[in-house]
Design a protein that fits this description.
Elements lengths: L2 H21 L29 H12 L21 H13 L10 H15 L3
């Protein structure tokens, strides 16, 4: 994938995500599948070449989504709050693009210092 296709597919993915979030209330909250359901919906062997993006997205809707518990669904009230938002999705995109592993200051001064700063901010809230 080159940068031209990345831009095209990225815009399609943003549209998919926005549509998912806009229509999530129309989906079942919890999955209605049995253990092992996915083996019957996907090939038994990995593809020898990359699949088309359209085919992958069709597999997401056809095979993956039936097995998803939709934590962002307005009627999902189990476990713990898992608020997701458009700003957090954009932040994840940026974090994944940078691809930095911030497990120590030496590995990533910016990650460590930003984490410390934000925790200090949280600590001052009353």
């Amino acid at each position: 994938m080159d940068s031209v296709e990345f831009r095209k597919r990225g815009k399609e993915m943003v549209d998919f995500i926005a549509n998912y979030m806009d229509t999530i209330a129309e989906r079942r909250v919890t999955a209605e599948v049995d253990p092992g359901y996915l083996r019957n919906r996907l090939p038994g062997k990995p593809p020898r070449t990359g699949d088309k993006f359209e085919d992958i997205m069709n597999d997401v809707e056809r095979a993956i989504m039936p097995g998803i518990t939709h934590w962002q669904h307005p009627n999902f009230h189990a476990y713990f709050p898992a608020g997701n938002s458009y700003p957090s999705i954009l932040g994840d995109m940026l974090s994944n693009a940078i691809g930095c592993v911030g497990f120590s200051w030496a590995a990533s001064p910016a990650c460590t210092e930003l984490e410390t700063l934000v925790l200090d901010w949280i600590g001052t809230q009353t």
